[in-house]
From TrEMBL:
Organism in which the protein naturally occurs: Notothenia coriiceps
Ranges of compositional bias, category Basic and acidic residues: 114-134
Family annotation (SUPFAM superfamilies): DNase I-like, GTPase activation domain, GAP
Protein name as catalogued: phosphoinositide 5-phosphatase
Limits of the Rho-GAP domain: 667-848
InterPro entries (alphabetical): Endo/exonu/phosph_ase_sf, Ig-like_fold, INPP5B_PH_dom, IP5, IPPc, OCRL-1_2_ASH, OCRL1/INPP5B_INPP5c, Rho_GTPase_activation_prot
Length: 848
């Protein structure tokens, strides 16, 4: 399961005062390149804390905020701050300024990040840091933190410094620098004009990119990767190497921790082309999906804006056993994004794979250097390189026919039955991507340690699961092949060598272009007030449903004589510019004169916004204020109607409903919501023991899915969830549609959306305190409100039935406790890792 913010606990509190300092930790033998993480020591009085901050924008923002806070303290403080707010932690910990709590690493609170800048020589850095620390009591302290990390490609700290320093100050980076927050509208315009005129000051130069993908089936490296990674006569300029199923253990699945990361990284570094020296840039991993990025030493100076992100597409979007990891970077003046994905398995699940692809494209986003700019999606790059176990299979042929075509090397005919080819031809996925001709035999499935096709009972049909695709201009594929020599896994690795035309900057042409743009802007500055024309000012959303996305588009046309900068701003006494169910994308931006920008108004009702909409306490109504810098404000009306759903309704309310929720008058739903917290409220008739919607889902699974392989571990289809939701909310049809996996995920989403969990929030602390005592746990359940108690016992009984069939459904107590404890027993506040363990221990008593 992917680590989320809920897994992070508070370990230390260090006040930022005159006794505070932050310094780099490094030694002469440590080597760093672009992409290195930052190691710093934070100190307060006699307390010290060592942090390893992942490379990127999140860490950069964190350190800049620390710097800003320290500066503010030193400028304004005339007496020592008292930090009285810390006292609430002293009661439990006995701390005295630095508070120790849960034993989880503070560095885990920071996610993948970007940007690395260093302009001082090592000797200067050391002196600067010592001076800063020494002056911390003088009223003018400054803190600095720098990145460092080992790399096999560099031989000295001086070499490291030269590489990293020059990477942030190439001419190609000037446009990026202009986007920083301290520059305003004028320099955003300069950046825009530079991008429009890029062809004037750039030229193309070819570089070779080696792409490799390997599903290692949870194995450790048992043989050299040399035949795979060293299959080119000339050393590639860049390596992007991806793995899937790095570790199949439950520890890796639930806690995202594995020793195999280091083992396979070492195997890769030892197998790179021997005729060149390579610098390690970045590694990113999500459970078993890993991507490693190396570049030739001589090119490292031209790598910048490195970002890494992950997205899980497992059940409820939280499991990281399937999903993608990605690294984006700028090489000279070209923006490149590399994606390594592992999509849904099983031959019949091609629609689920299509959905995974679309989820990855929409959810995987990278922060920009300027935090005020919207994040970059995968498709907003010059070059996109996509590798991985995409899991598309060969259909409509039986095993013997497939093997005969393979033995005859008739790959062209066989490829016509390939699911990915068919989905691309139908433009269902990978629109605009190119895959080279496949003239190698399928890479899956082999008996481990051999070249024999699967001889197990399942006798899998051979398939090209492992693929490499690309999108962009000026790309030529030099080879695309599998590597039969490697036998560690039941997959064979695949590689592709691409020659890519990268945009390089001519400094003289750049200077002339830059100066001409500035002169033109000087002429028109202050001449006119910005003005735009809106395509419409009223937007209505009809029949909105739970977790169903709807969007409308607003076109802004700049009809003025000068460029303008727009932003949706907060209304008085409101903390955000719009309601929680609404977003404007982009919410701010820049429009050149005569230009047009399209803004998508997106409405999405989730578990946090559904309860008040279900009861009628909240309506789909909002007014947005669109502000032009140096111009006027425009008001935009948003309205619509929401169809009530059992998702986001309370257990108490649903037990009162004997008819589908959408057949009930809004006033009735409002009254039920008001009474949902009052167990003593009078009822005109006997309520249902459990919500009928819950019964329908559990009954369906009990009758059809007790022996379903990977139930509650494999996601369903979103399209099927929508039909299941409509069936529960309208009563049509009488029985639930969709696959077992879709019904199982619908059940989890139902529990996740409850405003008050099955075990109400006010019992949470008692449950934690009693988690090791089975009889006390049972006593707490006996005290629950009757409808909540009924639901808990009903679900526990169903899960025990599932466990009786664990040999076929592959479930065990730990898996079910991990999944369901987080839904049935929620914390009213943020839950730390120790509490999560206790909730699982509590629930395990009821699964025995």
């Amino acid at each position: 399961m992917a680590i989320t913010a809920d897994d992070v606990s508070l370990e230390d509190i260090i006040p930022i005062s005159l006794d505070f300092a932050v310094v780099e930790i490094s030694s002469p033998e440590e080597l760093a390149v672009v992409g290195a993480d930052t190691r710093v020591r934070v100190s307060y009085q006699e307390e010290e804390l060592e942090l390893r901050l992942p490379f990127g924008s999140h860490s950069r923002l964190f350190l800049s905020e620390v710097n800003r806070a320290w500066s503010d303290v030193c400028k304004t403080t005339t007496h020592a701050p008292r930090f009285e707010w810390i006292s609430k932690y002293h009661k439990n910990t006995g701390g005295r300024g630095v508070v120790k709590q849960a034993p989880s690493p503070l560095s885990s609170t920071l996610t993948q990040v970007n940007e690395h800048k260093k302009t001082e020589k090592p000797s200067d850095q050391k002196g600067s840091l010592e001076r800063d620390k020494g002056s911390s009591n003088s009223g003018t302290p400054k803190s600095r933190a720098y990145s460092n990390q080992e790399s096999p490609g560099l031989s000295s700290r001086e070499d490291r410094d030269d590489l990293v320093r020059s990477s942030s100050h190439t001419t190609s980076n000037k446009a990026t620098i202009l986007a920083m927050p301290q520059f305003g509208l004028r320099d955003n315009l300069i950046k825009c004009e530079l991008m429009k005129n890029e062809d004037i000051y750039t030229y193309l130069q070819n570089f070779s990119f080696f792409l490799g993908t390997y599903n290692v089936n949870g194995q450790t490296p048992k043989e050299s990767l040399f035949p795979w990674l060293n299959c080119t006569s000339d050393p590639p300029d860049i390596y992007c190497v991806g793995f899937q199923e790095l570790d199949l253990s439950k520890e890796a699945f639930f806690f995202n921790d594995t020793p195999k990361e280091l083992e396979w990284t070492k195997a890769v570094s030892e197998a790179l082309h021997p005729d060149a020296k390579y610098a390690f840039v970045k590694l990113v991993r999500l459970v078993g999906i890993m991507l490693i990025f190396y570049v030739k030493n001589e090119h490292a100076a031209f790598i910048s804006d490195v970002e890494a992100e992950t997205v899980g597409t497992g059940i409820m979007g939280r499991m990281g056993n399937k999903g993608a990891v990605s690294i984006r970077f700028r090489f000279h003046n070209s923006d490149i994004c590399v994606v390594n994905s592992h999509l849904a398995a099983h031959i019949e699940e091609y629609e689920r794979r299509n959905q995974d692809y679309k989820d990855i494209c929409s959810r995987l986003q990278f922060r920009q250097l300027d935090p005020n700019q919207p994040p970059l999606t995968i498709m907003k790059h010059d070059v996109i390189l996509w590798i991985g176990d995409l899991n598309y299979r060969i259909t409509e042929l039986d095993v013997s026919d497939v093997k005969e075509l393979i033995s005859n090397k008739d790959f062209e005919t066989l490829h016509n039955y390939d699911q990915l080819k068919r989905q691309i031809d139908e433009e269902a996925v990978f629109v605009g991507f190119v895959e080279g001709d496949i003239d190698f035999q399928p890479t899956y499935k082999y008996d481990t340690g051999s070249d024999l096709w699967d001889t197990s009972e399942k006798c899998r049909v051979p398939a090209w699961c492992d693929r490499i695709l690309y999108r962009g201009k000026n790309i030529v594929q030099k080879h695309y092949q599998s590597h039969m020599a490697l036998k560690t896994s039941d997959h064979k690795p695949v590689s592709s060598l691409l020659q890519i035309g990268i945009k390089r900057v001519n400094p003289d042409d750049y200077k002339r272009t830059f100066e001409e743009i500035v002169r033109n802007i000087d002429k028109m500055e202050n001449e006119c007030i910005p003005s735009v024309t809106l395509s419409k000012r009223e937007f209505h959303f009809t029949d909105l449903k739970y977790m169903q996305h709807q969007a409308e588009t607003l076109s802004l046309f700049n009809d003025g004589q000068v460029p303008c900068q727009f932003e949706f701003i907060q209304k008085p006494n409101e903390s955000t510019y719009c309601k929680a169910w609404l977003t404007a994308n982009p919410s701010k931006g820049f429009i050149a004169n005569g230009g047009t920008v399209e803004i998508d108004f997106e409405v999405f009702v989730n578990r946090s916004t559904a309860p008040e909409l279900n009861s009628g306490q909240e309506q789909i109504e909002d007014i947005l204020v669109l502000h032009l810098e140096r111009g006027k404000d425009y008001f935009i009306s948003i309205s619509g109607n929401y169809l009530p759903s059992c998702y986001g309704s309370s257990i108490h309310s649903l037990c009162q409903l004997k008819e589908p929720i959408q057949d009930m008058p809004q006033e009735t739903l409002r009254e039920m919501a008001e009474k949902s917290g009052d167990e003593n409220a009078e009822n005109t008739e006997k309520p249902l023991d459990i919500p009928k919607e819950l019964w329908m889902m559990v009954d369906h699974l009990f009758r059809s899915a007790l022996k379903q392989e990977d139930i509650f571990q494999q996601p369903g289809l979103r399209s099927e969830f929508a039909v299941i939701r409509d069936c529960l909310d309208t009563g049509i049809p009488d029985s639930l549609p969709g696959s077992n996996h879709s019904v199982a995920e619908a059940l989890l989403l139902f529990l996740d959306a409850l405003p008050q969990p099955v075990i109400p929030f006010y019992f949470y602390q008692q449950c934690l305190e009693s988690c090791s005592n089975a009889s006390q746990c049972e006593k707490i359940i006996s005290m629950l409100p009757q409808c909540h108690k009924n639901v808990f016992n009903y679900l526990a009984a169903f899960l025990r039935e599932l466990l009786k069939n664990s040999a076929t459904n592959r479930l065990d107590v730990n898996i079910l406790a991990t999944i369901f404890a987080s839904l049935l027993l929620k914390s009213p506040t943020k839950q730390d890792f120790a509490e999560k363990r206790k909730t699982q221990e509590f629930f395990q008593h009821f699964l025995a």
